[in-house]
Amino acid sequence: MVTDDGTAEQMSKSQFPPRRVAGRGHGWYRGDCHVHSVLSNGGELTPEQLAAGARAAGLDFIATTEHNTSEAHGAWGSLAGDDLLVIIGQEATSQTGHWLALGINPGQVVDWRYRVRNDMIGKYLDQVHQAGGLCVAAHPHAPYPSGVFMYPFDGFDVVEVWNGLWTSDEPWQADNGAALAEWGRSLAVDIRGGRWRPAMGNSDTHLEGQIGTPHTVVLADELSTDAVLSGIRAGRSWIAESATVELSLQVSAGGRSAHIGERLDTCGGPAVVRVDVRGVPSGTVSFHTERGTVHRESLPGNGSDVSEWRTSAEESAFVRIEVRHPSGHMAALTNPIVLS
Protein backbone atom coordinates (compact mmCIF):
# COMPACT_ATOMS: atom_id res chain seq x y z
CA MET A 1 0.00 0.00 0.00
CA VAL A 2 1.28 3.44 -0.92
CA THR A 3 0.80 5.95 1.90
CA ASP A 4 1.15 9.68 2.23
CA ASP A 5 4.49 10.01 4.09
CA GLY A 6 3.56 7.16 6.41
CA THR A 7 0.26 8.80 7.36
CA ALA A 8 -1.56 5.59 8.18
CA GLU A 9 1.23 4.33 10.40
CA GLN A 10 1.41 7.59 12.37
CA MET A 11 -2.30 7.74 13.20
CA SER A 12 -4.33 5.60 15.54
CA LYS A 13 -7.38 3.82 14.20
CA SER A 14 -9.59 6.15 16.26
CA GLN A 15 -8.61 9.07 14.02
CA PHE A 16 -10.12 7.39 10.96
CA PRO A 17 -13.90 7.26 10.45
CA PRO A 18 -15.54 3.90 11.21
CA ARG A 19 -16.54 1.83 8.20
CA ARG A 20 -19.99 1.12 9.59
CA VAL A 21 -22.75 3.04 11.35
CA ALA A 22 -24.41 0.82 13.94
CA GLY A 23 -28.16 0.35 13.92
CA ARG A 24 -28.76 1.45 10.34
CA GLY A 25 -30.11 -1.53 8.39
CA HIS A 26 -31.48 -2.17 4.91
CA GLY A 27 -32.78 0.97 3.22
CA TRP A 28 -32.22 3.86 0.84
CA TYR A 29 -29.37 6.18 1.80
CA ARG A 30 -28.41 9.56 0.35
CA GLY A 31 -24.76 10.46 -0.15
CA ASP A 32 -22.19 12.63 -1.90
CA CYS A 33 -19.02 10.80 -2.96
CA HIS A 34 -16.99 13.70 -4.39
CA VAL A 35 -16.12 16.26 -1.71
CA HIS A 36 -13.09 18.53 -1.21
CA SER A 37 -11.83 20.48 1.79
CA VAL A 38 -9.15 23.15 2.15
CA LEU A 39 -6.64 20.36 1.54
CA SER A 40 -7.53 20.33 -2.16
CA ASN A 41 -6.75 23.02 -4.71
CA GLY A 42 -9.70 25.44 -4.77
CA GLY A 43 -11.29 24.02 -1.63
CA GLU A 44 -12.41 26.58 0.94
CA LEU A 45 -14.14 24.45 3.60
CA THR A 46 -12.78 22.59 6.61
CA PRO A 47 -13.81 18.99 7.26
CA GLU A 48 -15.93 20.31 10.14
CA GLN A 49 -17.81 22.61 7.77
CA LEU A 50 -18.27 19.79 5.26
CA ALA A 51 -19.70 17.48 7.92
CA ALA A 52 -22.13 20.16 9.06
CA GLY A 53 -23.11 20.88 5.46
CA ALA A 54 -23.71 17.21 4.74
CA ARG A 55 -26.03 16.88 7.71
CA ALA A 56 -27.89 20.06 6.76
CA ALA A 57 -28.36 18.72 3.21
CA GLY A 58 -29.99 15.55 4.54
CA LEU A 59 -27.14 13.22 3.59
CA ASP A 60 -26.44 9.89 5.24
CA PHE A 61 -22.91 9.47 3.87
CA ILE A 62 -20.12 11.37 2.15
CA ALA A 63 -16.72 10.43 0.74
CA THR A 64 -13.62 12.47 1.41
CA THR A 65 -11.87 12.74 -1.98
CA GLU A 66 -8.99 15.20 -1.77
CA HIS A 67 -6.77 15.71 -4.81
CA ASN A 68 -3.88 13.21 -4.75
CA THR A 69 -3.44 13.03 -0.98
CA SER A 70 -4.62 11.09 2.05
CA GLU A 71 -3.93 13.98 4.41
CA ALA A 72 -7.60 14.42 5.31
CA HIS A 73 -8.28 10.77 6.14
CA GLY A 74 -7.38 11.19 9.79
CA ALA A 75 -9.46 14.37 10.18
CA TRP A 76 -12.80 12.56 9.92
CA GLY A 77 -12.82 10.19 12.88
CA SER A 78 -14.53 12.60 15.25
CA LEU A 79 -16.81 14.05 12.56
CA ALA A 80 -18.58 10.84 11.56
CA GLY A 81 -21.42 9.70 13.78
CA ASP A 82 -24.56 7.61 14.08
CA ASP A 83 -26.13 9.91 11.48
CA LEU A 84 -23.21 10.20 9.02
CA LEU A 85 -20.95 7.62 7.40
CA VAL A 86 -17.66 8.93 6.00
CA ILE A 87 -16.07 6.86 3.23
CA ILE A 88 -12.33 7.22 2.71
CA GLY A 89 -11.33 8.07 -0.84
CA GLN A 90 -9.27 10.21 -3.20
CA GLU A 91 -9.58 12.05 -6.49
CA ALA A 92 -6.67 11.12 -8.75
CA THR A 93 -6.15 14.07 -11.10
CA SER A 94 -4.13 12.59 -13.94
CA GLN A 95 -3.09 14.69 -16.92
CA THR A 96 -5.79 13.22 -19.15
CA GLY A 97 -8.74 12.74 -16.84
CA HIS A 98 -9.78 12.61 -13.20
CA TRP A 99 -11.18 9.64 -11.31
CA LEU A 100 -12.39 8.77 -7.84
CA ALA A 101 -11.01 5.93 -5.72
CA LEU A 102 -13.69 5.19 -3.11
CA GLY A 103 -13.35 2.89 -0.12
CA ILE A 104 -9.56 2.70 -0.14
CA ASN A 105 -7.49 2.00 2.96
CA PRO A 106 -6.69 4.77 5.47
CA GLY A 107 -3.55 6.55 4.33
CA GLN A 108 -3.57 4.91 0.90
CA VAL A 109 -2.67 7.21 -2.00
CA VAL A 110 -3.39 6.30 -5.61
CA ASP A 111 -0.81 7.59 -8.09
CA TRP A 112 -1.98 10.30 -10.52
CA ARG A 113 1.28 11.05 -12.40
CA TYR A 114 0.50 9.62 -15.84
CA ARG A 115 -1.61 10.19 -18.92
CA VAL A 116 -3.54 7.99 -21.33
CA ARG A 117 -0.56 7.38 -23.62
CA ASN A 118 1.43 5.86 -20.73
CA ASP A 119 -0.99 2.91 -20.54
CA MET A 120 -0.59 2.81 -16.74
CA ILE A 121 -4.05 3.44 -15.34
CA GLY A 122 -5.02 -0.24 -15.18
CA LYS A 123 -2.35 -0.81 -12.55
CA TYR A 124 -3.89 1.79 -10.26
CA LEU A 125 -7.45 0.60 -10.84
CA ASP A 126 -6.27 -2.84 -9.74
CA GLN A 127 -4.80 -1.37 -6.55
CA VAL A 128 -8.14 0.19 -5.63
CA HIS A 129 -10.04 -3.00 -6.41
CA GLN A 130 -7.60 -5.03 -4.33
CA ALA A 131 -8.40 -2.72 -1.39
CA GLY A 132 -12.11 -3.45 -1.92
CA GLY A 133 -12.70 -0.02 -3.41
CA LEU A 134 -14.72 1.44 -6.26
CA CYS A 135 -13.32 3.28 -9.31
CA VAL A 136 -15.38 6.14 -10.73
CA ALA A 137 -14.73 8.04 -13.96
CA ALA A 138 -15.22 11.64 -12.78
CA HIS A 139 -16.88 14.48 -14.75
CA PRO A 140 -15.94 13.00 -18.16
CA HIS A 141 -16.67 16.19 -20.12
CA ALA A 142 -15.46 18.85 -17.67
CA PRO A 143 -14.50 21.92 -19.74
CA TYR A 144 -10.91 22.52 -18.65
CA PRO A 145 -7.45 21.02 -19.33
CA SER A 146 -7.09 17.52 -17.84
CA GLY A 147 -10.77 17.52 -16.84
CA VAL A 148 -11.96 15.76 -20.00
CA PHE A 149 -11.78 12.01 -19.43
CA MET A 150 -9.66 10.51 -22.21
CA TYR A 151 -9.41 6.93 -20.89
CA PRO A 152 -11.77 4.16 -21.97
CA PHE A 153 -14.30 3.25 -19.30
CA ASP A 154 -13.00 -0.33 -19.25
CA GLY A 155 -11.93 -1.20 -15.71
CA PHE A 156 -14.04 1.55 -14.13
CA ASP A 157 -17.03 0.53 -12.04
CA VAL A 158 -19.15 3.66 -12.34
CA VAL A 159 -19.43 6.88 -14.38
CA GLU A 160 -20.11 10.24 -12.73
CA VAL A 161 -22.65 11.60 -15.22
CA TRP A 162 -23.80 14.50 -13.03
CA ASN A 163 -21.14 16.74 -11.48
CA GLY A 164 -22.13 19.67 -9.32
CA LEU A 165 -22.21 23.42 -9.03
CA TRP A 166 -18.57 24.26 -8.73
CA THR A 167 -18.04 25.39 -12.36
CA SER A 168 -21.18 27.55 -12.53
CA ASP A 169 -24.31 28.62 -10.68
CA GLU A 170 -26.39 26.02 -12.54
CA PRO A 171 -26.91 22.54 -11.04
CA TRP A 172 -27.21 21.03 -14.55
CA GLN A 173 -24.65 22.02 -17.19
CA ALA A 174 -23.79 21.16 -20.78
CA ASP A 175 -20.89 18.95 -19.72
CA ASN A 176 -23.30 16.88 -17.61
CA GLY A 177 -25.60 16.56 -20.61
CA ALA A 178 -22.69 15.26 -22.70
CA ALA A 179 -21.69 12.76 -20.00
CA LEU A 180 -25.26 11.49 -19.65
CA ALA A 181 -25.62 11.08 -23.41
CA GLU A 182 -22.36 9.15 -23.65
CA TRP A 183 -23.34 6.85 -20.80
CA GLY A 184 -26.86 6.40 -22.14
CA ARG A 185 -25.60 5.37 -25.58
CA SER A 186 -23.43 2.65 -24.05
CA LEU A 187 -26.18 1.01 -21.99
CA ALA A 188 -27.76 -1.14 -24.71
CA VAL A 189 -24.43 -2.60 -25.83
CA ASP A 190 -23.20 -3.11 -22.27
CA ILE A 191 -26.43 -4.78 -21.15
CA ARG A 192 -26.33 -7.12 -24.14
CA GLY A 193 -22.77 -7.97 -23.14
CA GLY A 194 -23.93 -8.86 -19.63
CA ARG A 195 -22.13 -6.11 -17.70
CA TRP A 196 -23.39 -2.54 -17.63
CA ARG A 197 -21.73 0.34 -15.83
CA PRO A 198 -23.94 2.37 -13.44
CA ALA A 199 -24.20 6.14 -13.32
CA MET A 200 -23.81 8.30 -10.24
CA GLY A 201 -23.95 11.99 -9.34
CA ASN A 202 -21.85 14.01 -6.90
CA SER A 203 -21.38 17.65 -6.00
CA ASP A 204 -17.58 17.95 -6.40
CA THR A 205 -17.87 20.38 -3.49
CA HIS A 206 -15.19 23.03 -3.15
CA LEU A 207 -17.23 25.95 -1.77
CA GLU A 208 -19.99 26.74 0.70
CA GLY A 209 -23.50 25.71 -0.35
CA GLN A 210 -22.48 23.05 -2.86
CA ILE A 211 -22.54 19.79 -0.92
CA GLY A 212 -25.33 17.41 -1.87
CA THR A 213 -26.13 19.09 -5.20
CA PRO A 214 -26.44 16.55 -6.66
CA HIS A 215 -26.09 13.32 -4.70
CA THR A 216 -26.67 9.59 -5.17
CA VAL A 217 -29.46 7.68 -3.43
CA VAL A 218 -28.39 4.07 -2.82
CA LEU A 219 -30.22 0.93 -1.70
CA ALA A 220 -27.83 -0.72 0.77
CA ASP A 221 -28.09 -3.59 3.23
CA GLU A 222 -26.75 -1.30 5.94
CA LEU A 223 -25.07 2.08 6.31
CA SER A 224 -21.49 0.92 5.88
CA THR A 225 -18.70 1.54 3.40
CA ASP A 226 -18.91 -2.00 2.01
CA ALA A 227 -22.71 -2.02 1.69
CA VAL A 228 -22.97 1.44 0.14
CA LEU A 229 -20.24 0.72 -2.41
CA SER A 230 -21.86 -2.62 -3.20
CA GLY A 231 -25.16 -0.87 -3.91
CA ILE A 232 -23.47 1.70 -6.14
CA ARG A 233 -21.50 -1.00 -7.96
CA ALA A 234 -24.72 -2.95 -8.65
CA GLY A 235 -26.56 0.13 -9.93
CA ARG A 236 -29.16 0.04 -7.16
CA SER A 237 -29.19 3.82 -7.11
CA TRP A 238 -30.58 7.01 -8.56
CA ILE A 239 -29.39 10.62 -8.61
CA ALA A 240 -31.20 13.52 -6.94
CA GLU A 241 -30.67 17.25 -7.23
CA SER A 242 -31.50 17.63 -3.53
CA ALA A 243 -33.13 15.82 -0.63
CA THR A 244 -36.46 17.46 -1.49
CA VAL A 245 -36.72 15.18 -4.55
CA GLU A 246 -38.11 11.68 -3.98
CA LEU A 247 -38.47 8.90 -6.55
CA SER A 248 -39.28 5.21 -6.80
CA LEU A 249 -39.27 3.03 -9.93
CA GLN A 250 -40.69 -0.45 -10.41
CA VAL A 251 -41.38 -2.72 -13.39
CA SER A 252 -43.94 -5.52 -12.98
CA ALA A 253 -44.77 -8.50 -15.19
CA GLY A 254 -46.59 -11.76 -14.53
CA GLY A 255 -46.79 -11.23 -10.78
CA ARG A 256 -43.08 -10.44 -10.48
CA SER A 257 -41.42 -7.05 -10.02
CA ALA A 258 -37.98 -5.44 -10.13
CA HIS A 259 -36.55 -2.16 -8.92
CA ILE A 260 -33.68 0.10 -9.93
CA GLY A 261 -30.54 -1.84 -10.83
CA GLU A 262 -32.33 -5.20 -10.98
CA ARG A 263 -33.27 -7.57 -13.83
CA LEU A 264 -36.82 -8.74 -14.50
CA ASP A 265 -37.67 -11.88 -16.45
CA THR A 266 -40.97 -11.00 -18.11
CA CYS A 267 -41.48 -14.53 -19.53
CA GLY A 268 -42.41 -12.85 -22.80
CA GLY A 269 -45.38 -11.03 -21.32
CA PRO A 270 -46.26 -7.33 -21.03
CA ALA A 271 -44.52 -5.18 -18.44
CA VAL A 272 -45.84 -2.17 -16.54
CA VAL A 273 -43.37 0.55 -15.62
CA ARG A 274 -44.45 2.64 -12.64
CA VAL A 275 -42.60 5.70 -11.35
CA ASP A 276 -43.57 7.77 -8.31
CA VAL A 277 -42.01 11.27 -8.18
CA ARG A 278 -42.27 13.97 -5.52
CA GLY A 279 -40.73 17.41 -5.16
CA VAL A 280 -40.53 18.61 -8.79
CA PRO A 281 -43.42 21.07 -9.33
CA SER A 282 -44.65 21.27 -12.96
CA GLY A 283 -41.76 19.11 -14.06
CA THR A 284 -41.59 16.37 -16.69
CA VAL A 285 -41.03 12.63 -16.29
CA SER A 286 -39.48 10.86 -19.28
CA PHE A 287 -39.01 7.13 -19.91
CA HIS A 288 -35.87 6.02 -21.77
CA THR A 289 -34.91 2.73 -23.45
CA GLU A 290 -32.38 1.77 -26.13
CA ARG A 291 -34.78 3.48 -28.55
CA GLY A 292 -34.27 6.80 -26.79
CA THR A 293 -37.04 8.79 -25.12
CA VAL A 294 -40.19 6.70 -25.54
CA HIS A 295 -42.72 8.40 -23.26
CA ARG A 296 -43.22 11.69 -21.38
CA GLU A 297 -45.69 12.89 -18.77
CA SER A 298 -46.08 16.23 -17.02
CA LEU A 299 -46.08 16.58 -13.25
CA PRO A 300 -48.75 18.73 -11.54
CA GLY A 301 -48.05 21.96 -9.75
CA ASN A 302 -47.47 20.21 -6.44
CA GLY A 303 -44.68 18.15 -8.03
CA SER A 304 -46.04 14.76 -6.98
CA ASP A 305 -47.51 12.11 -9.25
CA VAL A 306 -47.44 8.46 -10.29
CA SER A 307 -46.80 7.74 -13.97
CA GLU A 308 -47.18 4.43 -15.79
CA TRP A 309 -46.06 3.13 -19.18
CA ARG A 310 -46.40 -0.30 -20.74
CA THR A 311 -43.76 -2.16 -22.71
CA SER A 312 -42.22 -5.63 -23.14
CA ALA A 313 -38.77 -7.20 -23.15
CA GLU A 314 -39.05 -7.52 -26.93
CA GLU A 315 -39.54 -3.74 -27.23
CA SER A 316 -37.23 -2.62 -24.43
CA ALA A 317 -34.00 -4.17 -23.14
CA PHE A 318 -34.11 -1.73 -20.24
CA VAL A 319 -35.96 1.29 -18.94
CA ARG A 320 -34.64 4.24 -16.97
CA ILE A 321 -36.19 7.55 -15.87
CA GLU A 322 -35.28 11.23 -16.08
CA VAL A 323 -37.14 13.99 -14.22
CA ARG A 324 -36.63 17.59 -15.29
CA HIS A 325 -37.75 20.99 -14.08
CA PRO A 326 -39.80 23.22 -16.41
CA SER A 327 -36.50 24.96 -17.28
CA GLY A 328 -35.15 21.67 -18.65
CA HIS A 329 -32.59 21.29 -15.88
CA MET A 330 -32.34 17.80 -14.39
CA ALA A 331 -34.00 17.08 -11.05
CA ALA A 332 -33.42 13.33 -10.89
CA LEU A 333 -32.38 10.36 -13.02
CA THR A 334 -32.18 6.64 -12.43
CA ASN A 335 -30.07 3.70 -13.34
CA PRO A 336 -31.96 1.16 -15.46
CA ILE A 337 -34.12 -1.83 -14.74
CA VAL A 338 -33.13 -4.56 -17.22
CA LEU A 339 -35.84 -6.61 -18.96
CA SER A 340 -35.33 -10.13 -20.27
Describe this structure in words.
The protein is α+β, with helices and mostly antiparallel strands and 340 residues long. It has two domains: 7-240, Metal-dependent hydrolases (TIM Barrel, Alpha-Beta Barrel); 246-339, Immunoglobulin-like (Sandwich). It contains five helices and 19 strands. It has helices at residues 7-10, 47-56, 121-130, 174-192, 225-234; strands at residues 27-35, 61-64, 85-94, 97-102, 134-137, 158-163, 199-202, 215-220, 237-240, 246-253, 256-259, 263-264, 270-278, 284-289, 292-298, 305-312, 318-324, 330-334, 337-339. The termini are far apart. The model has no long low-confidence stretch (mean pLDDT 94).
- Say how many strands there are: 19
**CATH fold field value of the largest domain:** TIM Barrel
- For the termini, the CA-CA separation is 42 Å
CATH class of the largest domain: Alpha Beta
Derived from helix and strand composition plus strand pairing, the structural class reads: alpha+beta
Q: Over all CA atoms, what is the radius of gyration?
A: 19 Å
Shape category:
globular
What about the largest sheet? 15 strands, mixed
β-strand amount: 25-35%
- Summed up, the helix count is 5
Q: Which residue ranges are poorly predicted, with pLDDT under 50 across at least 5 consecutive positions?
A: none
> How many discrete domains?
2
Order of helices and strands: HEHEEEHEEHEEHEEEEEEEEEEE
Named CATH architecture of the largest domain: Alpha-Beta Barrel
Average pLDDT, all residues: 94
Helix content: 10-25%
CATH homologous superfamily name of the largest domain? Metal-dependent hydrolases
